[in-house]
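hiii so um. not sure if this is the right channel but i have a protein structure encoded as tokens and i wanna go backwards to a sequence. like what aa goes where. can anyone help
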């Protein structure tokens, strides 16, 4: 097969089925980032633990995945992309079953760590393998399919998790992974072994690996507990932040000077990759602000059920599906920087439409901006992903995909913590201002037909509801303006010479 391009080895129906299998794996892994979020109360009650302890089910997965994603390049180089991919799928399936069978918090957290370690390489490897089996003129469409699963996954997670927990049992949020694992592992073993990447016996960078585990773990734990402990006013949070920062600096210096680094940071020398990978991190983090805030605000303030709140956010994914096929075509016709910048301006405008939401908003008032936002997101994510991977040579593709996805995951983690902290802080500030203006002349006044205590309780509820609404509108004002700022940042990247062809040269 020497001299034969990798995409000539998987053709026709096999290529189509393999593409579906790869996209399904990515959807499954991304979905598992958020599917447990709404199930924490069910898990906590069933295992007899507190809700704060239950959040470790989420944190353990996020930390393990964040650690393993940037390792993908080294693992693929050492063992082969397809081999690592198949073993990771099987590991993910095994730990999914064990999560569902868990009877204690310790067992569940340990299995979630295993699930995260197995799932980390799957996200970038689905990209890498799609690029290997599709010819240059079809890679943008393949990446469009991949991008849509990445956008839809976080939206579907809470809906599916809530529905399964309410109607079946929380155990099934893990068991549902098994059919996808069996299908994808079988297809990958049958169809993809012919496009295995060359294997090199490179030494293990034990120091770099240890440093990476330490700084990512400390940062992720800091982000998780920070908002519950008043951030840097708490000595533990401050110590974690300083430790993460110091170890990160040491890690960067070590990896840049190591002959065989566990994470190849040299890929950042490509300006096109760096700018577009950062655009994905900033843009996806800003987009995720809505996924974090909207469902909670709808349930807390407006009284929607988890299912209806999830459906409102799902309009973004529904709209994206309608235009998803257009994005890959458009970026091959005009300068992709125009498409990417325009998509961010569109998304910023759709975000600003949410700044006039009130506590009396109905479902369609909330759903329309979500739908409008969704029309622009494929053009953002498909374009930025294709531009970043098109900026690196094929031998660095696995490392680039791993680092790109790592930045996106960390962007989401930081965004979630910052947004939730700011949202709660602004709600308290708005609540204090509203309470100060309420009945200024008669502080002990009552509402007709209610006692003093009942009147105060009703007014407190009113204040809390309006305060959260004001805070929500502020979140989207800032997020919309940030989207527009990121649209300018795009232009720091060079114009791609050839879109969606990072594998030029054949394999």
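sure thing!! here u go:
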């Amino acid at each position: 097969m020497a001299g034969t391009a990798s995409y000539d080895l998987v053709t026709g129906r096999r290529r189509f089925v393999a593409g579906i299998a790869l996209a399904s794996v990515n959807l499954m892994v991304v979905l598992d980032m958020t599917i447990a979020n709404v199930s924490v109360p069910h898990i906590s009650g069933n295992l007899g633990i507190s809700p704060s302890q239950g959040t470790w089910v989420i944190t353990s997965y996020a930390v393990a995945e964040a650690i393993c994603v940037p390792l993908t390049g080294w693992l693929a180089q050492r063992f082969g992309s397809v081999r690592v991919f198949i073993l990771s799928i099987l590991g993910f399936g095994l730990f999914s079953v064990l999560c569902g069978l868990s009877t204690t918090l310790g067992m569940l957290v340990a299995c979630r760590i295993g699930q995260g370690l197995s799932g980390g390489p799957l996200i970038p490897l689905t990209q890498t393998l799609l690029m290997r089996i599709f010819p240059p003129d079809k890679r943008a469409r393949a990446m469009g399919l991949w991008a849509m699963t990445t956008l839809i996954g976080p939206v579907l997670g809470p809906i599916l998790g809530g529905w399964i927990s309410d109607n079946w049992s929380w155990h099934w949020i893990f068991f549902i992974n098994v059919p996808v694992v069996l299908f994808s592992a079988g297809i990958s073993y049958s169809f993809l072994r012919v496009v295995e990447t060359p294997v090199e016996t490179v030494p293990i960078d034990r120091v770099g690996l240890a440093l990476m585990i330490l700084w990512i773990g400390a940062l992720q734990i800091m982000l998780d507990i920070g908002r519950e402990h008043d951030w840097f006013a708490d000595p533990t949070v401050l110590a974690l932040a300083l430790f993460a920062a110091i170890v990160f600096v040491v890690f960067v210096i070590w990896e840049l000077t190591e002959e065989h680094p566990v994470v190849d940071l040299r890929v950042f020398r490509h300006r096109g990759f760096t700018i577009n990978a950062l655009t994905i991190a900033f843009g996806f983090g800003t987009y995720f602000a809505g996924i974090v805030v909207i469902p909670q605000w709808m349930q807390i303030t407006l009284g929607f059920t988890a299912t209806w709140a999830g459906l409102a956010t799902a309009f973004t994914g529904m709209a994206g599906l309608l235009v998803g096929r257009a994005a890959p075509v458009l970026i091959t016709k005009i300068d992709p920087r125009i498409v990417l910048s325009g998509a961010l301006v569109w998304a910023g405008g759709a975000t600003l439409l949410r700044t006039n939401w009130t506590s009396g908003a109905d479902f369609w008032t909330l759903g329309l901006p979500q739908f409008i936002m969704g029309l622009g997101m494929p053009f953002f994510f498909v374009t930025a992903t294709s531009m970043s991977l098109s900026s690196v040579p094929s031998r660095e593709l696995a490392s680039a995909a791993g680092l790109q996805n790592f930045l996106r995951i960390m962007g989401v983690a930081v965004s979630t913590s910052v947004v939730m902290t700011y949202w709660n802080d602004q709600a308290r500030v708005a609540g204090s201002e509203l309470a100060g203006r309420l009945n200024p002349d008669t502080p002990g006044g009552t509402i007709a037909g209610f006692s003093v205590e009942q009147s105060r309780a009703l007014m407190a509820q009113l204040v809390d509801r309006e305060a959260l609404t004001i805070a929500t509108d502020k979140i989207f004002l800032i997020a919309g303006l940030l989207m527009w700022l990121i649209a300018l940042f795009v232009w720091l990247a060079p114009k791609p010479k050839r879109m969606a062809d990072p594998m030029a040269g054949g394999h």
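oh and The mean pLDDT is 80.
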